[in-house]
Amino acid sequence: MKVLRTPDERFANLPDYPFAPHYHQLAPDLRLHYVDEGPTDAKPVLMLHGEPSWSYLYRFMIPPVAAAGLRVLAPDLIGFGKSDKPTASSDYSFSGQVEWIRQWMEALDLRDITLVCQDWGSLIGLRLAAENPERFARIILSNGGLPTGEAKMAMAWRLWEKFSRFSPWFPIGRILQSGTKRELSPAEIAAYDAPFPNDRYKAAARVYPSLVPVRFEDPEAVKTAMHGRYSSNGKSPSSPALAMVIRSPVVVMLVSSMKYPARKDKRIHACAADISFKKMIHRNSRSWLLRLVAKANWWAVTDSNCRPTD
Description:
α2 crosses α3. This protein has one domain (about 5-300): Rossmann fold (3-Layer(aba) Sandwich), CATH 3.40.50.1820. The chain is globular, with a radius of gyration of 18 Å. A 7-stranded mixed beta sheet has the order 2-3-5-4-7-8-9. It is built from 8 helices and 15 strands. By secondary structure, the protein is an alpha/beta fold. β13 (about 280-285) and β14 form a beta hairpin. The two termini are about 35 Å apart.
């Protein structure tokens, strides 16, 4: 396996990213980077990014969550951010990425985890939660799930998968801008580009859309289905984001984005709750949302003390 490591100077003076680097050696030639903020003996909040982003995505969420007395851990998936980057597409797989994060999670012996995940972070994180339910206490899920290959993928996703494989032009920062809620500054776009000095560093970013299980016979889809269950009506949901499993005692919150509207004048950007449910799932034209009717002891990050997420 040939591995590249992004030079440290690429990450100098990134806007709103003052976090000290931490590293875990997965193998002699493979190093994983993670952010670790807040008390080390506090309950962990694990933030898993999607693709082609990195832990920079959570830069506005990490400080207030850590200030609330929780331990925030935000790893960069292998192939992204400050983590090492194998150069061959064949070095990456769904199960391989799950295994890399599992090894790191077990090395730190994380327990009572609140999982915050989106996009590919949810595919990896929900598999980990399903396979290691004793380590997870609650989950906040945004724009993600565990596809079983039984639901038809949207045209927008199919175009994205083809673009990531075949386009000679693959500008990470501009791709992230196309999916954000607000206009990113040039410095922020450059920060998303920072892990990728040239195309040799982009193998993971290009291959991961192709690794999403889209056919039921896909071995990864079979593994997912073994853990999966459907929505409460017993039918396969129209979105693969709902083809997922969460085993007791893990609690799940589905949100349409990290900027879920709490009320007209504020938006909740992140929350973690010890909750009891009555009704779980509500359907609208764009996504499935988890509607909570619960007693909750929870913390929330709103516009009053936190800038918007991307």
